[in-house]
Design brief:
By secondary structure, the chain is an alpha/beta fold. Helix 2 packs across helix 4, helix 4 runs parallel beside helix 5 and helix 6 runs parallel beside helix 8. The strands form 4 sheets. A 7-stranded parallel β-sheet has the order 3-2-1-4-5-6-11, with helices on both faces. Strands 7-10 form a two-stranded parallel sheet. The longest helix is centred in the first third of the chain and has 21 residues. The chain is globular. Helix content is 43%, strand content 17%. Strand 5, helix 5 and strand 6 form a beta-alpha-beta unit. The structure holds thymidine-5'-diphosphate.
Length: 329
């Protein structure tokens, strides 16, 4: 196969590119190289690279030339940034998805659209979200992903394109930009900086290793029935505070770095996925969370040269905007 991977320089996208290349596939990466896209994530990995935006039809057509399939990882993904400013989220996650869909329709390529459990909204306790549950997004980020998902489903129904959607749970592993919970806490702990826990820290997330997530997406690419939605959850639900305390132990940081700070507006307490559809295709997560977290902490300890430059410059401005007031009160 020749596969276009959009957002292939980002966190999950770069894990996926490495996986496809190792499986012997030809990969073209289209990436805009926004703040979270990083060419270094694909060092030493054989691929063709095009810098460009999925919302630009010319860039998509050029990069997609001769490709049998596209896997769309290109997205603005960070809830907190979407609360500060949502325009880029609508542009990339909704309009960009529309541009990709038009190319898929014209080229007759197969699409796997990578989405998130957040489109279902809060599942405070008990039941699990199933693929045909209503979408009730809480944040501007989740709403823009839900908009993209609905466009994909509409193109399947109306235009008969060959497309699947995957909805993964919270993902962690190496090469994750340090704005999400785990890499932010690990790198702050390694630097002796405060660990800002939103609210009571009793929110729950289901932690999926990036390799397990990518294995699920690859299976959907190869074997998913056209038009289907597949949830990808690890079944490793943890309270945020427990995750942070485990990071404190693993890094040897001082426990009093943990600070309870003002909560995120609209904060979902919990997500929970029913992944039985993907299990029926033969997928199950391979990594348990304890081992995966310890390996991830070790990766950040051993790869300061990857994340220290990121945490200067524009990151500092974002960090101050997001946390300065929270940490001062
Ligand atoms: P995050 O990694 O942003 O993923 P998502 O919002 O998509 O689930 O956050 C995971 C959880 O961690 C979420 O409940 C918010 C919480 N959180 C904090 O408590 N402090 C932080 O600094 C961050 C970034 C997240």
């Amino acid at each position: 196969m020749r596969v276009l991977v959009t957002g292939g320089c980002g966190f999950i996208g770069s894990h996926f590119v490495k996986r496809l290349v190792a499986a012997g596939e030809q990969v073209v990466v289209l990436d805009k190289l926004t703040y979270s896209g990083n060419l270094a994530n694909l060092d030493g990995v054989e691929h063709e690279f095009v810098q460009g935006d999925i919302a630009d039809p010319v860039a998509v057509r050029g990069a997609g030339e001769g490709c049998d399939a596209v896997v769309n990882f290109a997205a603005e993904t960070h809830v907190d940034r979407s609360i500060l400013e949502a325009g880029d989220f609508v542009r990339t996650d909704v309009l960009g998805t529309h541009v990709l869909l038009e190319w898929v329709r014209a080229a007759g390529a197969r699409l796997v659209h990578v989405s998130t459990d957040e489109v279902y909204g809060d599942v405070p306790e008990g039941s699990w979200s199933k693929e045909d549950d209503p979408l009730l997004p809480s944040s501007p980020y989740a709403a823009s992903k839900a908009g993209g998902d609905l466009l994909v489903l509409a193109y399947v129904r109306t235009h008969g394109i060959d497309a699947c959607i995957t909805r993964g749970s919270n993902t962690y592993g190496s090469n994750q930009y340090p704005e999400k919970l785990i890499p932010l806490m690990v790198t702050n702990a390694l630097e002796g900086e405060p660990l800002p826990v939103y609210g009571d820290g009793r929110q729950r997330r289901d932690w999926l290793h990036a390799e397990d997530h990518c294995a699920g997406i690859e299976l959907v690419l190869r074997e998913g029935a056209g038009g289907g939605v597949f949830n990808i959850g690890a079944g490793a639900e943890r309270e945020n505070l427990d995750v942070v305390m485990r990071i404190v132990e693993l890094t040897g940081a001082e426990p009093d770095l943990v600070r309870h700070v003002a909560d995120r507006p609209g904060h979902d307490r919990r997500y929970s996925l029913d992944s039985s559809r993907l299990h029926e295709l033969g997928w199950k997560p391979e990594r348990d969370f304890e081992t995966g977290l310890a390996e991830t902490v070790a990766w950040y300890q051993d790869n300061r040269a990857w994340w220290e430059p990121i945490k200067s410059g524009a990151y500092r401005e974002y960090y101050a905007r997001q946390y300065a007031e929270r940490l001062s009160s």
